[in-house]
Amino acid sequence: MAVLSLHNVAKRFGNVDAVSGVSVEIPSGEFFSILGPSGCGKTTLLRMIAGFESVTSGTILLDGKDITTVRPEARSIGMVFQNYALFPHMTVFGNIAFGLEAKHVSPDDIRKKVESVLDAVRLREKLNAPVPLLSGGEQQRVAVARALVVEPALLLFDEPLSNLDVTLRLQTREEIRALQRKTGITTVYVTHDQAEAMSLSDRVAVMRAGKFEQVGAPADVYEAPVSPFVAGFVGGGNLIHGSVKEGLLFETNGTSLTLPAGFAGQVQGKAVLAIKPEAITLSAGQAGDALALIEDKEYLGFTTNFVINLSGLRLHVSAISSPETKALRPGERAHMQIDWTRCTLYREA
Amino acid sequence: MRLPRPLAVIPTLFLLLVIAGYVAYPLLVMFQQSLLVEGRLSFANYSNLFDPANRGNMEAVWNSVAVSFLSVLFSGIVGTVLAFGLTQIQFPGRALLSRLAIVPIALPPLVGVIAFLFVFGESGILPRLFQTAIGSSTPPLYLSGFTAIVAIHVYSFYVYYYLFVSTALRQIDASILEAATGLGSTPWNTFRKVIIPELRPALVGASILTFMASMASFTAPLLFAGEKRFITLLIYTTKLNGEMSLAAAQSILLTFVAIGFFVALQVSSGRQVKVGRTKGVPRTGTLPLGRGMRIVFISVISSVLLLVLLPLLTIVLISLAREGSWTVQILPGAYTLENYLRLFTDPRILEPIRNSLVMGFVTLLAVILVGVTGAYLITKGVLRRARTLLDVILTLPYAIPGTVIAVSLILAFNVPTPFSGFQVLVGTFWILPLAYFIRLYPLVVRSTTAALEQLDDALLEAGASCGAGPWRRFRRIVLPLIFPGIVSGALLTAISALGEFVSSILLYTYSSRPISVEILSQLRTFNFGAAAAYCVMLLVLILAIVSVANRVAGQKAPARE
Q: What is this model's ipTM?
């Protein structure tokens, strides 16, 4: 088991800073996710950890040993690629045995290890199948098995589930989590899917424009986002640009919201207010804070989403489906209530 | 994943040395020689070329250009029609006909030309048949001159169009055609507005190959030109007259014209924009055709392919003819196996076969070594910026006519040089495989580059993350995946080297004469049977190589869905 530390790791492509000064310490056995939109530098960072990209500046330590310039094959990593990168000319056995052969493991041990890792991913019966004949989900599991079998110090995942359909993705997600818990291998997992990052990780780093914006346990990142970007990206919060006047009045585009006393003294002047979609409750009958026009309604089964318009301010609302939500129709007006404990106020950057 | 720097330096140096020594140096020496008259700098050779009093030179250039354009036009029509018929229409025997359609590409140029001579020439089978039928004293209709040369070119080069266009047609996504039909487009409209634009790159690519091959064509003019002049033929006769510096100037002229058209065609083709394709496995589309069109297509295809087969059958027939039994008759009067028996018993006759096999083998080893190294450096080398330059330098020799390469080698290696191990190469055995190597290694570069470009870099990264070093990654991942690509380039090399004629005729000596030169000398002494038996022998060798290559490539090819 290994501790991974990054110190001010940066990558420059020409004039573009793909990754700028990332530092983090990932303790042994942790499942660490890097979450961010495409182009934020998360894959570049992962590839630097793997050794596929050179590091422009900074150092990467694995168990205290500087591996910044060590060749990838000497780093003791296991990597699962987005397109799986299985060797198409080999069988399942050949793919998984490849890394063991490179380590000159005896043929008997190779067979034992391959069989046991295939048991772990429930593919024992596919031992001699050529990989192009496997389904997407099976290929994914072979890729995981190939990375695990060499007993790496570090397991790296590059958006491994993005090529799977929804049901398979949920199932594989649970399997990856279970395997990681069982083996206890320190894991770095790159994804743009916040649900994936939340459900798998011990800690999540939200990345933006080459930097870690926030690092923390999934619940902390979700409940206390440090910036409007994190609030918007994790949980899809409504971001409202406006300004705080006279203590507790938040003004935006001619509309104003009165903030509760808890926000007093936090920010004055230009500000961004983040309201999570589930922080807003709509009701037809009783009087609420304000009257909003329902512009659109999207029924998703367990939840129902609305788009509402509050004198020109458009907000996304998510509610657990109920007879109440069923009664609300587009074009009608509804009363709106905000749970301010799920809202955050930021100074406009 | 790129090669580590030290691993790339040695092959890069090796490659540059090979190119500098065996391609660039001879061409430069040739250029220098073209500017020398009696040891002094002079433009006399060039002014001679363009001198209005010496119209032969420019006439030869224009004849070659004209023949090339006609060859492009008619090869294009024949190849495209065949490609359409054989991909778009289902009919019994289609698979067999598809195989038959690519036969001419495996035919050594000399064999094709001789077969044409036997069938369509002045004393060929068909003209005599026609003559007898109408009771005339001379054959009223036979192929000669321009017509014959264009016909032979079409016979040999339509395959480029057939292969390129049918590949492009197979890649057209069915949903595009369905979308057009769904929007109310007629088949003709769909063909014009949807299919033709999709075929453009294929047509341009095949046209470039056909044009270059026609400009460089030597064998067909040699046997059919008659009074007409052609630039390759002119270089050959100038060399035979011993006017090497004039031959050098003519070679420079041919090179410039050939490369000029090559560049012009390449530039005018522009770049193609690929739009997103269907997710998953695309289905192949076919154009809905009426019954009448089907019948027209099927009969055209069948008759064209009959014409493909006819020269081959004739060669086999003549190879069985007793010497002297085929003079004025339509078909030979007496048959025998003697021609074949002589092949195996007379050591003088066996010698050229041995020569060709040894030279072919040497060429094969050299092209694989240089071709694979070159392809690897083009796709995975450290010199990312030099990539295009390296690509051009490595494939350029393919655009240089064989006649020119032979002339440049004669001029460069008739004195000892470091590149020839301080020996005079002219007049030795080794200058022939050297010429073959220069002409053919681009085939391996191209086929291997194509295979390497298909290779996903993530596979090499996966190999590295499993702990495999560069050599293991190359041996276990790269090599098995590009192996079919190497084999297909090597196969073309082997076929071409065995039957090579254009450079050989300028470089051989009696003891190093290859099969092709021997075939020509048998033909010149009117031993038609022996010449034909040699041709059949060559075809059998080629067939054997093709089947071995197919087996080898098939075994190593990855299993696919």
A: 0.84
